[in-house]
Amino acid sequence: MTSLKAQNGLKPSWFAILAVIAVGFLSGCSSFQHRDQLASFNAAYATGDYNTALKTVSFDRPENKPVDTGEHLLELLHQGEMYRLTGRIDESVKAYDLAEDGMKYLNTEGLFASTTEGLMAVMVNDSVRDYDALMSEAVLVNTYKALAFLASGNNEYARVEFNRADDRTRRAVDYFREEIAGQQAALKNEAQSGNSKAYMVRSSLQSRGFQSAVDGQYGAPSNWSVFPGFIVPSSTYLHGLYFLANAEDGADYERAATSLKRAAQMNPQSAVLQADATLATRLASGTQPVAELPPQVWVVYENGLGPVLKESRLDVPLLLLHGNRQAPAYFGIALPQYTERSAVPGNMGVQAAGGQVIRTERISDMGKVIRTEMKERFRGVLTRAVTSAISKAVLQNEAAEQFGPLGQIAAALFTVATTQADLRSWQVLPDHWEAARIDRPESGRLTLLDNGGSVLGNLEIPQQPFTLVYVKRPTLQAPATVITLDLQGKNKATLARMPE
User: Fold this and answer.
1) Which residues does 421 contact at the CB level (< 8 Å), separation at least 6?
2) In the 8-state DSSP scheme, what is residue 301?
3) Which of 38, 303, 420, 465 gets the most CB atoms within 10 Å of its CB?
4) 149-172 burial, b if ≥16 CB within 10 A, otherwise e?
């Protein structure tokens, strides 16, 4: 019996290549499904319909089998926050625990790792990989878990999560440095060992023409508006408030002062950050006895919709090998680019019984946090995009040689269908955070006001030394979710939606 290879004259390797092309077309469908899912989520989330938003990110869980946390990481992140905003604290913690399991920060793979996922990402695009959460998202997961534990009155676990968020922030700089160094070392070793694709990728990335084309679209990363070191100021701020309220000794007060001063350094214009850093410093030094401090109330406000990704396509010159010669050729690549969404106009007012109104002020922008991280990650994103483009260019050339015009057309269609940027991101992060601090009124009653001065709702502040009123409002069309927490975790939180 004549074999298929003999009948068609195909090399065995071409069966694998044809399979990759078929899967590539399917991955295009999967990418559009991801985008449709996020669009459905955002439509519900923007109006405050969190139960419907939760349904859009739900998935079937196999019986008697563990959840594939890598595959479902993005859904788990969204579920965790929807549960938290609807007061289902246990479900929120479980979802966030699973999400942490799916974050792969300790398993840095080489650029040319021989895994199925790595091969498909190169031959198709990054969207076929499991979602790779930003480090800032990982820090916020720990922060949201800490707030969830505080809401349930579990102060011990809240302390653990605030410390984890702080530890991740400190380790992030080393992580980024090691990640980029590992990618560049893998690329250099592959190029020097005779891997022609690696050589072409490295040469293309180092060419002036390529850098000029990318900088023309994005601007030079060195000019991006970023923090001087990786930090998520809102998480660092909340870490400081927690230890200020829960200090057991001088070391805890120093920890609080360090975090609050660090947050204040990122935004020197913020009066509330400067005042809180000063308060923590005085408590640490003993010049402000904690026994003489009146009960304090902080209002922290997550305002608006944070940045999301859009696709940016551009033609760049890639250096391809023809025999022993390098020849430049222009190919299209697709890169993710963050774009701002919207914030709720103005700020929030906090009014005590005497009529005094204190306004929240902006303490941190999510966009600047993401730009800081993307400045570190951008080289890796470029490297994968160029590797993919060169692999597809080689594929087109080989398809033309093996199959003639029909093969070339099929490979070209494959390239068009799979040249897509990975636009997945955690959609629930805010445009920015605001904060205010006020002495607890003797009546225990506070009124929250919207940007126009209208009453959002009234709050009863329990008789406790330190209270955190945590507010989240994605749009004007959505009510504000208001969670009143005991910063010492001795009492369970109350949750309200304002206006009702």
Assistant:
1) 125, 126, 127, 309, 311, 312, 334, 335, 336, 337
2) E
3) 303
4) bbbbbbbebbbebbbbbbebbeeb
The three-class DSSP label of residue 486 is strand
Q: What is the pTM of this model?
A: 0.86
What does the pLDDT profile of the chain (500 residues) look like in tens digits? 333 333 333 343 455 455 555 555 555 555 667 788 899 999 999 999 999 999 999 998 878 889 999 999 999 999 999 999 999 999 999 999 999 999 865 444 434 443 334 444 455 556 667 888 899 999 999 999 999 999 999 999 999 999 999 999 888 767 766 766 666 666 667 666 666 777 788 888 888 888 888 888 888 777 787 887 788 999 999 999 999 999 999 999 999 999 999 999 999 999 999 999 999 999 999 999 999 999 999 999 999 999 998 888 888 887 776 666 666 677 788 888 899 999 999 999 999 877 889 999 999 999 999 998 888 888 888 888 888 888 877 777 777 777 777 777 777 777 777 778 888 899 999 999 999 999 999 999 999 999 889 999 999 999 999 999 999 999 999 999 999 999 999 999 999 999 97
Cα angle 291, 292, 298; round to 5: 90
Strand order in the sheet with 432-439: 361-365, 432-439, 296-303, 466-473, 480-486, 494-498
Cβ neighbours of residue 446 closer than 8 Å, sequence gap 6 or more: 297, 350, 351, 352, 438, 458, 459, 461, 469
CA distance 307 to 140: 15
Structure tokens at 15: 């069966």
Helix (H, G, I), strand (E, B) or coil at 341: coil
How many domains is the chain partitioned into structurally?
1
